Amino acid sequence: MTEQEKPAAFRPHGHDIATTLALLTRLPVRAKFNRTAQAVWAFPLAGLAVAVIAGAVATIAIWLSLGASLTAAFAIATGVIVTGAMHEDGLADSADGLWGGWEKERRLEIMHDSRIGTYGVLALILAMLIRFSALSTVAHAGVIVSALLAAAMLSRAVIPFTMTLLPHARTDGLSVQTGRPPRRAAVLAAIIALVLSWIVVGFVPTVLAASSCVATGTIVGAVAKAKIGGQTGDILGATQLLCELAALVTFAALTT
After folding, report:
1. Distance between CA 47 and CA 139 in Å, rounded?
2. Cα 228 to Cα 45: distance, rounded to the nearest angstrom
3. Percent helix / strand / coil, the chain, rounded to 5
4. What is the residue-wise DSSP string for 180-194?
5. Is 231 left (phi over 0), alpha (psi -120 to 50) or beta?
6. Integer Cα distance of 237 and 232 in angstroms
7. Is the CB of residue 190 less than 8 Å from the CB of residue 161?
8. Tell me: the pLDDT tens digits for 99-152?
9. Is the pTM higher than 0.70?
């Protein structure tokens, strides 16, 4: 294992929250990136910030009686703007690369290409359709804000485990620059997400949504390991988005 592959020593710091906000959102915060690997424990808090803003917009839409569909649409648009669509970009690139190439080198080359292909377009369309349908359902049930908060935190808690358990698939890129986080940071991220989600949506919905996130993250990780030998920044983005969709679908199913 190289020095870059070795997990860094873990010690939580208040500045880590600003680091994760700068890394995972487009919010104007001042941050240092000298301990990004250790800061992954705060990923769920970055998700919480995104969801709070999207939830505020959804609440305004509800107050204006715009209906479940428009409420869901505005919440989605807000989330995409706040994150800079980085997770959607990761999903599109991952779909193109993992299914558009026949060998590891070619798949990584496709994922690195800024152009989007058929697999990427279809992945984004299906992801947005599922997200819109799930959020419309929970909006109709009057629980869209709590669903947004819990799904955002639980899905981002999966990323540190993916970073810790899977090796880097390439020698450069954002994931490599970030480094491999210590397992204690990943565990703390999971604890934060589970506790805060429990407070927001309750114990049983949290367990079910977290289970769906773990299952989804495991599947994505297994596919990435088999096809490109590990994880990249695109794989991490795709993992977050797909886990969020799994959580939202779970919450939607619980409201019907």
Report:
1. 19
2. 30
3. 75, 0, 25
4. PPPHHHHHHHHHHHH
5. beta
6. 9
7. yes
8. 988 888 999 999 988 889 999 999 999 999 999 999 999 999 999 999 999 999
9. yes
